[in-house]
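Box 4.2: Ligand-aware structure prediction
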Amino acid sequence: PDGGNTFGPEDDPHRYTIKEELGTGATATVCRCTKSDGTQYAVKSINLSKLRLQPNFQKVADKLHREVSILFTLRHPRIVSLYDVVEGRDHLHLVMELVEGGELFDHIVQMGSFTEPVARYVFIQIAEGLKYIHSQDIVYRDLKPENILVDRNHSKRGLLEIKLSDFGHSKLINDGYSTALTRVGTPQYWAPEVSDPLKAAQGYNQRVDLWSLGVVLYVMLVGAYPFDGVREPMEKQIRQAIVTFPPDRQPSQHAQDLIRGLIKVRPQDRLTLDACLGHAWISMMGGSLSKIA
Ligand code: ADP
Ligand code: MG
C-alpha cells in the first residue's frame, strides 16, 4: 500500500502519514511525517516509478543503495539518524530523525555572517561529526551549509546545535587513497583534486572534506564564498588556493590561520581534524564549550 499521503503496513502502528514539506535538495523532497503512535519524523521519499524510467536508472539506484547503507551504519549525536526504510508501490521512504530548525545555510543568510563564538560552536560540532564519519572509512563529499541541519529544539542562547545530513554523495573508502574517483558534490566546496577531472580520476580521499570544512568556516565568518563565479576562473582560483578576505569582513588572525590551514592544495598539507580541534582559534576561548557563550 502506497496510496495518498500515508505509507507503511495497513492498520499497523508503524503506519506513517506525510505532512508538510521541510525542504528540497537536488534529488528529493523531505517532509515531516507522523507515525500512528504520534511520534514525528522526517521522510525523504524517492519516486521509484519515475526513477525507473530515467536513462541512468542503475547509477541512481546504486547511489541510493549506498546512501541507505551508509546512513544505517552511522550512529552519532552529530549525524541525522535513519529509523526506517519503507518500500511502497511507487516510493522508497527513508524515515529519519526530525531536525527542526532549517538548514545552516538559511541561518547564515539571515545573519549575513556569524560572530566568531557562534561559528566556533558550529565548527567544533562539524569537526566532531566528520571525525566520526572518517573513522568509519567514509568520505562525506558534500559538506556545505545546505546539508547541515540546525536542531532548534536543542539550541540555547544563540548557539546552534547541528546535525550532518544527506549522505547521498558519501562513499565508503577501503584503504585510504584511490577508490573515490568521480566529481560529486558542489563546485564552490570542491577541493582541487575533485575540481580537476584529471586529478579526480586518479583518486582522492577523506581529505577533500577538510578543504570543504575550510570553505564552510569561511562562509560562516564572511558570508560569501572564498571561490566563486563562473566555472573556469573559479576552478583556477581553487587550484591556486589563494584565500583572501574582504577588507570590511576580516576574521581574527587565528580564524584566518585555521581557514588557510584547511584550504591547502596538497591534501596531505591540510590540518587534520584533531589539529583543527586543538587549534588556537578553538582554544582561545578556553577550549570548553561552556565558556564560549
Ligand atoms: P538531496 O539529496 O535532494 O539534497 P537532502 O537529504 O539534502 O536531499 O534533503 C533536502 C532538504 O530537506 C535538506 O536540505 C533539508 O532542508 C531538508 N531535510 C533533510 N533531512 C531532514 C531532516 N532529517 N529533518 C528536517 N529537514 C530535513
Ligand atoms: Mg542535500
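In the box above, the bound molecule is adenosine-5'-diphosphate. The pocket of magnesium ion (ligand 2) is lined by residues 25, 146-147, 166 (CB under 6 Å).
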